[in-house]
């Protein structure tokens, strides 16, 4: 596909995905908030079957919201359901996955330093991992484990470890992270589609026919929405992690991914407890400390190669390396087959450009060995060491013609 058209399609679907994702998670946060701010209603409302109510002001209007114990005496004509937020987030996400990681598998998904896959193999493994992750989760929830909170949680953790490790042994760091995110997103959308919506339909049908709603549906829906609740923050992290090579491009990227999932789910726990009237700020403090510890543990240490020799490499030598290894993409006129516009607007055609971007070159080439992209231009460790020494010396060098 023409790179320009592909860029536009990606832009449009990324935009739609963000919008629908905000609508989904926003609605879900809003209803959790509602539930936790309901107050005891006045007598006349209790008599109508109302369990709690609240007042709010927004956008120039005052709202009165009431939640029924079960249902109103007569079902209203219009009942708003919340499901398309979830479905459309999943659908746009799948399109985006295909556009970025499957159409562009050679560039984004396959890293020949990790595994030599063909495009077809990579796509097969990718889609297979989504299906497998979702099926395993569904099967687990169908076993008696589903009733045992901690055991189920533990099994899910073991599964997450297996997937995180497995994916990073097959895909580029970015590709592995995004597939983990897509598995979580599929599980969440699947929960809405397979369990939460049917249980709501069953509830409405029971009320309309005047029969007792089956409580097992409600319990199942509750379990799945609790899972979704804990998965929101990890999912959102994974979706933005592609901007941060210090995570996905690290040697231990699979452990980092698991650590971040654990920390962000734990932070969610604070809000869930608070909603039940339990205030444990220590949870947030522990999450913050854990994040700081993680950041410290994966902090780039100056490589011995960079410090071994005190000689500052010649600027012309560094310029030659960067032009050869980076400017195929990072140029005003790139020659790369995939990237036909300088990625991120980073242009490294000459010394001036290299000095301007020195800090980012440090971040992307030395601290996290994420550039050259998938090491497509075969930069050697020795060249990295030379660039590193030059950066450590403050990126010195005269500009041409000055
Ligand atoms: C095969 C193409 C390709 C090559 C070669 C390449 N890059 Fe990149 N670069 C990319 C792409 C794609 C992005 C945008 C994606 C991203 O930001 O992760 C990018 C982004 C960047 C960014 C901007 C992001 C930021 O963090 O500010 C920097 C800096 C960078 N590359 C530096 C380099 C350096 C230095 C080299 C050579 C050692 C290099 N790149 C070689 C494709 C390439």
Automatic annotation (TrEMBL):
It holds the Pfam family Urate_ox_N. Residues 313-395 form the Cytochrome c domain. The keyword Membrane applies. The chain crosses the membrane at residues 12-33, 84-105, 117-137, 149-171, 177-197, 230-246, 252-270, 282-299. GO terms for molecular function: electron transfer activity; heme binding; metal ion binding. It comes from the Bacteria. InterPro entries: Cyt_c-like_dom, Cyt_c-like_dom_sf, Urate_ox_N. The keyword Transmembrane helix applies. Keywords: Heme, Iron, Membrane, Metal-binding, Transmembrane, Transmembrane helix. This is Cytochrome c domain-containing protein. The lineage of its organism: Bacteria, Pseudomonadati, Pseudomonadota, Gammaproteobacteria, Cellvibrionales.
